[in-house]
Design goal:
With about 325 residues, the protein is an alpha/beta fold. Helix content is about 35%, strand content about 15%. The strands form two sheets. Strands 1-7-6-5-4-2-3 form a seven-stranded mixed β-sheet, sandwiched between helices. A three-stranded antiparallel β-sheet has the order 8-10-9, covered by helices on one side. Strand 9 (about 310) and strand 10 (about 320) form a beta hairpin. Helix 1 runs antiparallel to helix 10, helix 2 packs parallel to helix 10 and helix 8 packs across helix 11 (about 260-275). The structure holds pyridoxal-5'-phosphate.
Length: about 325
């Protein structure tokens, strides 16, 4: 009750738990050599309206770092938002898996960026990189996050412009989609229209935050880029031997658009929650709300058992509230 700590505070969405129990029947091949895992690739081909290469891992950190390692050489530079999850929250996993690539933070450059990178800021950051081969590292990859850590969505137009710039400079593009479903639900466009059709080369399609137990799909739209990914995943300890249980979760997540239904619900609850607050640090576009609260207001909420975190950012007294598929109207009945 009243738990807005994170979307991973919710457990498993019931159809996913059911699918896990069904997958528990009998024997199956290990390491992805089973019927459920094979069927999943076809599910993703259908979802993205083209052939894709799909690899499952159990955490977003593994998915991001291994996907970026597939795109970026050790002497490469990855441009990303200054507060991207891969910079602030993954303990150097990207540097580890790429064997030393550098993360170049894209800062506002005078623009008020929020959680999104602007084209202007990207261009200026790219221009500011020293390019004296062989003395400097080589710009290799652009990493974006959709939806962003601060609950905003890039429009298709915005993302296309960023990808076009990246490709014009010979960079590959990665999308951290831990909350891709919430963005698709908000924008009401197809997964294809919001990924490869805009120029995304590799997408991390998040399952955990939408209601899975721990499964993220790394989707390569250009199969050539997946070269050696299987080896990287195994070497990192992320090839799950009872792989059918990851695949079963993801199949149930995709079936009948369950992933989208859960995302729509979470987004809807965030909108309803946001109407309780007077001041917000970021617009509410998906399933996160960032109210600005006085110390007294925060204490009053906590005294009622409301769980949420402080969110360090340029606006003091900002807090983060996250909704999920499990949030109910009753969870919004605290007083403010
Ligand atoms: C934007 C983003 N990317 C990736 C992740 C996945 O991280 P984890 O390694 O905890 O599954 C998260 C989780 O908080 C996230 O918010």
């Amino acid at each position: 009750m009243f738990n807005f700590a994170s979307d991973n505070a919710a457990g498993l969405s019931p159809p996913i738990l059911k699918a896990l129990i069904a997958a528990n029947e009998g024997f199956a091949g290990g390491y992805g050599n089973d019927e459920i895992s094979n069927a999943l690739t076809q599910d993703f081909n259908t979802l993205f309206e083209r052939e894709v290469s799909v690899y499952l891992v159990s955490t977003g950190t593994a998915a991001n770092s291994l996907a970026l390692a597939a795109l970026t050489p050790p002497h490469g530079v990855i441009l990303t938002h200054e507060h991207a999850h891969i910079i602030d929250d993954e303990c150097g996993a990207v540097e580890l898996q790429t064997h030393g690539a550098r993360l170049a933070p894209v800062c506002g450059q005078g623009d008020k960026m929020g959680g999104k990178i602007t084209l202007n800021a990207l261009e200026k950051t790219y221009q500011g990189l020293v390019k004296r081969v062989p003395h400097s590292l080589v710009p290799a990859t652009l990493s974006l996050t959709q939806s962003t850590e601060t609950g905003e969505v890039y429009t298709a137009h915005e993302m296309q412009a960023l990808c076009d710039f990246a490709h014009s400079k010979g960079l590959k593009t990665h999308l951290d989609g831990a909350r891709f479903g919430q963005a698709v639900a908000a924008l009401q466009q197809t997964p294809a229209e919001l990924s490869w059709k805009l120029g995304i080369d590799v997408l991390v399609f998040g399952g955990t935050k939408g209601g899975c137990m721990g499964v993220e799909a790394v989707i390569f739209f250009d199969k050539a880029l997946a070269h050696n990914f299987e080896l990287k995943r195994k070497r990192a300890g992320h090839l799950t031997s009872k792989h059918r249980f990851l695949a079963a979760q993801m199949r149930a997540f995709l079936a009948s658009d369950h992933w989208l239904d859960n995302a729509r619900h979470a987004n809807h609850m965030a909108k309803a929650l946001s109407s309780k607050f007077k001041k917000l640090a970021y617009p509410v576009e998906v399933n996160a709300v960032f109210p600005i609260l006085s110390d007294e207001e925060a204490a009053h909420l906590r005294a009622q058992g409301v769980v949420f975190y402080a969110w360090p950012c340029e606006t003091p007294h900002t807090y983060r509230f996250v909704t999920s598929f499990l949030t109910t109207q009753e969870d919004l009945t605290f007083t403010f």
